Amino acid sequence: MTLWIAAGGLIALTLAALLGAFLRARPSAVARGDYDLAVYRSQLDEVERDVERGILASDLAEATRLEIKRRMLAAAGGADSQTVAPAAGTVAPAWRGAMLALMVVLVPAASIGLYLLVGSPTVPDQPLAARSVATRTAAQERAEMERLTARLAQQMEKQPDRVDGWLLLGRSLRTIANYDEAMRAFERALALTGRAPDVLSEYGELLVLAHGGRVAEPARRVFEETLKAVPAEPRARYYLGLAKAQQGDPRAALQDWVDLIAVSPPDAPWLTDIRREIQGVAAAAGIDAKTLAPTTGLSAPAAHGPSAEDAKAAAEMSPAERDAMIRGMVEGLAERLKAQPDDADGWRRLARAYEVLGEPEKAKEALTQAEAAEKKAKP
């Protein structure tokens, strides 16, 4: 109820301001004779100034004075009842009445209708006390996050070779919207990993955030570099499609996203969002998304990662059991790749897994296999 009272008050004030300006008295029309006499007096003054400056001869000045005075007599004697034409923009009384009525009806109706359309009139008011607590809690959490991030940044100055540390620092800085520092942290991680595709992809997303959601040229180049290494990388595929949508080419964007669905595992977590994005862009552009088919020659969907059940089971294990499970998954991936040696993405995942397990020689061998698979896939 308080909201509606406040909204009604604001609408009333707005109407009062508009009506006051509209109904403000306008200057009355000037009589034609008075107007002409004022002009002639001004001309006489100008003649006197020209004589004083020496640019008008006395005989010409006298003739000019006589002519102006003759016109003044004519204006004073025959045109008193005439008036100057109404100023441009003056509205006839009938139209003014109609506009006033329209304003009184339209302003409140449009205001309330717009709020009902885009607002949330059914959301109950939040108690002031709860608002204060929520605001205070958010401020405390941000302060704590900034303190931890600053401590991590100091630690990374002592251990600059830790890739996971730079990634954690970059993600933490991104959380508190410190994008410039976050980009510097990611750039350190990129240098240490030799521009690993997964780090590149995350760095590209950070560039998008830093540009307010726009996929600008630097981010686009990063995503294209990512796809050269991992053609099915979902984040790069999504943002390159978004770049096309932002450049006014919705059909090309939709095609990219349809292809992304085609190369994704059927239970990939991003599929719901992608399908929702496709529906929205297709509807706005008047395109029937069902008519879009995946591009021919796409690679097969990427292998599945750990399922939710796997993650839950891992959380309940002891460190030794968890290590054994991870090694079992890595060995399973290695065995599969022996049978499918052309899966470049799989080889790169295996290389990353070996890096995490502290087995650099095996990681190097897996990268060699990935590069060989990519060369083989090129036309």
Low-confidence sequence ranges:
none
Number of helices: 16
Shape: elongated
Cα distance spanning the termini: 68 Å
Helix fraction bin: over 70%
Q: How many strands?
A: 0
Q: Using only CA atoms, what is the Rg?
A: 38 Å
Structural class designation: mainly alpha
Order of helices and strands: HHHHHHHHHHHHHHHH
Question: What percent strand?
Answer: under 5%
Mean pLDDT: 79
Major beta-sheet overview: none
State the gist of this model.
With 379 residues, the chain is mostly helical. Helices cover 74% and strands 0% of the residues. The longest helix is centred in the middle third of the chain and has 31 residues, at 128-158.
Descriptive overview:
The protein has 379 residues and is an all-alpha fold. 74% of the residues lie in helices and 0% in strands. The chain has 16 helices and no strands. It has helices at 2-23, 32-53, 58-78, 93-118, 128-158, 163-175, 179-193, 197-210, 217-229, 234-246, 250-263, 271-285, 308-315, 319-339, 344-356, 360-377. α14 packs antiparallel against α15 (344-356) and α15 runs antiparallel to α16 (360-377). The radius of gyration is 38 Å and the shape is elongated.
